[in-house]
Amino acid sequence: MKDKTKLFFGKNPYSAKDDGAFLRAVRENVRFHAEHNPKYAQILEHCEFSLDELTDEADLYKIPVLPTLYFKRNELFTVPKEKLVLEATSSGTKGQKSVVGFDRQSMLYGVGAAARLFAYHGMISALATNYIVLGFEPDGRLGLGAAKTAYGVTKFAPALHRVYALKKTEHGHAENREGVLDALLRYEKQGLPVRLVGFPAYLHILMIELRRRDISLRLHGRSMVILGGGWKQFSGEAIDNDSLFALVRETLGIARENCLEFFSAAEHPLPYCKCKNGCFHAPVYSRVIVRDAETLLPVPNGTPGILSFVSPLVTSMPLVSVMTDDIAVLHGGGGCGCGIQTPCFELLGRANARGVHTCAATAAELTGGKRT
Amino acid sequence: MNLIHGKRMDAEESKRELARIDESVLQSLASGRLTRESVIAACDALSKKLNGRAYLPALVSLGMKPEKAETELAEYRRMLSREYLESWVGREFGERADRSFQPMDFGRPVRQTWAPLGVLLHIAAGNADALPAFSVIEGLLTENVNIVKLPGGGDELSLRILEELIEAEPRIAGKVFVFDVPSSDLAAMERLAGVADAIVVWGGDAAVRAVRSMAKPDTRIVEWGHKISFAYVSGGAAAESDLRELAKHVCETNQLLCSSCQGIYVDTDSFGQVVAFAERFYPILERAAERDPLPDDPFRAAQATLSLYTEELEAANTNKRVFRGKSCGVVAYDDSELMPSHTFRSVWVRPLPGERILRTLKPYKSRLQTAALVCGAGETRELEEALVTAGVVRITTGGGMSAHYCGMPHDGEFALRRYMKIVSYENRPVIPRTKEE
Q: ipTM of the predicted structure?
């Protein structure tokens, strides 16, 4: 625990110095889960993994890596459910959702790590701020990780008012285009900083709408755009973020350097902030491993593969070695030139057979057609 | 891009055409049918024109891989030839028997003829190669007027094929109206649906549901939905050659077609025998996959690996066995659930004793398409009957799952017949003219 505390409460979230605390904390985390989670212990045994193999950071890839798909289909809690203080589900683009849960300790470390990262990127402010949340309004019934993250981000500068692009109604969430536009005009008049946080697709829709109505605003100089998540069902309309941020500058008057992009996953709740050179740098709390798409062994830097992470952050579930369904390339430390010295990754897209059309029935179609 | 009256039109022009589609369709109907013979002649002319030198570069420029373009082109040549089309039509309709006959309970002779439904609206979801064009050709062969809603992103190949047909037979221009409107434009969709006698929809549940909700009760819906296919192996000693053929088919189609084998049922209730079969089939599939390698694509490979690797982790706490290599995978399960595979050479194996075929598969009724039957000669008839009773509409050998022959029914139907109706005429007495007059 000493190592983990040292790791998570250190001052510089991108420190390149390491005295072995990370590896020790990971070993301790694997041991903890193996001891308290029989299902996880079975997985380790099935994969013929033993902690003795973990003697160097170069061995981290050997910890059996659990794909997000595993959490979409299986529950794997190490602590009893009543100890969970936060449950979140992934947004489930294809219908399946992971349920992940965090205990008090994981939350504490996670929020601490996020706060340090957000502070590093200049996101913590004492000025009262108005928020446009480009995503779902939190809802008792909806455990969407994305909604919680977007809402959570509104805590890093005191929120005067929040308006949601997807407003909760009696029948689920509804688009709130007029509400958002009214709020923006009101916020400009108030003259306080405004933060737009959430999905890039919704920001794009908003920018197009403002342009269509010939509205051009000059928001407070300390206003920000904070984006996370992909284009989801809007992928057909995806534009590159440079063009999107140029639009933001033109329509809202927010400078490029005040537009931040984050990568995060329900199964790996650490924020990765995109640097000015388009790279997501690993903080001290995690290591990034890009794996061969067939063998799952680490690939050399610069080679595309499946993005995976190792972190000792979470105690409630064995999220110590997890694999996303994103394809990425890893670059070694110091090479990107932005000043942050840790290794970084670039996202290339989702694992998916592209341009493939099938006329075979899907699982949903088969189970939908089945009488139960 | 829109194609109306034989001309390509931009969105503005097509809006005007959309506004007067009722009138255009009425005019087209009033101008008389374009005979099947004229359509066959146009298709045959195009078939003869489709040589590799002129058309391969065109297909490649539309994004098709050269090898695929070559096989597609050969396929188009065959399927558009007079010989093929006449044989197909003959298979579906027999001799055009419009001779009159005397019903047993009716005092006068009658005759019955096939007639077009009238106006078809073709909706092809996704971008399967030139599907909209071939759907329209079916509509033309049945002498219908055809309205097409192109899939999102358009379909240049279909437009080119239709333009070539119009060049060969200019009267086709009056029978084909191609609109490039998005499905989200409900007003446009409803307008197009409103003038159609039948809506022909290709695609999954979402597409079919959207059409059902949009179509008025007086409009027939012809659904070509998603289907599932599998193999059924009975008798311990399935011949090696049958399994090799099946593995080859899995690699050739990558399990993407509705006729592709998603998995293999073994006639047993023992999980041990299922595992033994999976263990036997895995190296056969691996050899087939190595002989027919997929192009390097980390995105596709990652999707397959993530699915199979997740299964492997789940096998730590559940009753399943995973055989996974670089190029393919076989998963043995202890349940009999009918599921799609993870595609790209990943096959499931499940137990299904012969006497439980009907009970297990009946719930999937209209989703079932092809079953490859690998069994001893003595069992064939009984197993065929059980599969067909459950809902299977096509029974093949191991290697024949995605083979196609001229006149083959489509998902249990004669496709052209679905676009026609049968009209009954009561014969009027013909008064013979006398020489004196």
A: 0.88
pTM: 0.86
**Nearest one of B233, B208, B209 to B223, comparing CA atoms:** B208
Supply B296's token pair: 């390097």
pLDDT of residue A370: 44
The average confidence (pLDDT) of chain B is 92
Which range scores top for mean pLDDT: A205-209, A295-299, B57-61? Answer: A295-299
Question: What confidence category does residue A230 fall into, taking pLDDT thresholds of 50, 70 and 90?
Answer: low
| Predicted confidence band of residue B44 (pLDDT cuts 50, 70, 90) | very high
Choose the closest CB to A362 out of B298, B340, B344. Answer: B340
A330: left (phi over 0), alpha (psi -120 to 50) or beta: beta
Is residue B349 in some structural domain?
yes
Q: What's the CATH number where B28 sits?
A: 3.40.605.10
Query: Is A293 part of any domain?
Result: yes
Kindly determine whether residue A359 and residue B316, on different chains, have CB atoms separated by under 8 Å. no
Q: Are residues B415 and B313 in the same domain?
A: no
Which residues span the domain enclosing B305? 228-400
Tens digit of each residue's pLDDT (9 = 90 or more) over A40-98: 999 999 999 999 999 999 999 999 999 999 999 999 999 998 888 877 766 555 556 77
Q: Clarify whether residues A152 and A250 are in a common domain.
A: yes
Domain membership of residue A172 (yes or no) is yes
Q: What is the Cα–Cα distance from A224 to A254, expressed in whole angstroms?
A: 7
Closest-CA distance of chain B to residue A57, Å: 24
- pLDDT, residue A371, reads 37
Task: Show which of residues 37-66 on chain A sit within 8 Å of chain B, judged by CB atoms.
Answer: 39, 42-43, 45-47, 64, 66
Q: What is the pLDDT of residue A229?
A: 67
Would residue A245 count as lying in a domain? Answer: yes
The size of the A-B interface in CB pairs under 8 A is 138
For residues B220 and B320, membership in a common domain is answered with no
Residues A137 and A220 in one domain: yes
Q: How far is B188 from chain A (nearest CA, A)?
A: 21
- Do both B254 and B369 map to the same domain? yes
In angstroms, the CA B34 to CA B146 distance is 12
Contacts of B132 (CB under 8 A, 6+ apart): B122, B124, B148, B150, B151, B155, B158, B178
**Same domain, yes or no: A254 and A318:** no
**How is residue A298 annotated by DSSP?**
B
Q: Are residues A169 and A252 in the same domain?
A: yes
Best A73, A74, A358 residue to mutate vs chain B (most B CBs within 10 Å): A358
Tell me the nearest-neighbour CA distance from A363 into chain B, angstroms. 6
Which positions in chain B touch A39 (Cβ < 8 Å)? 316-317
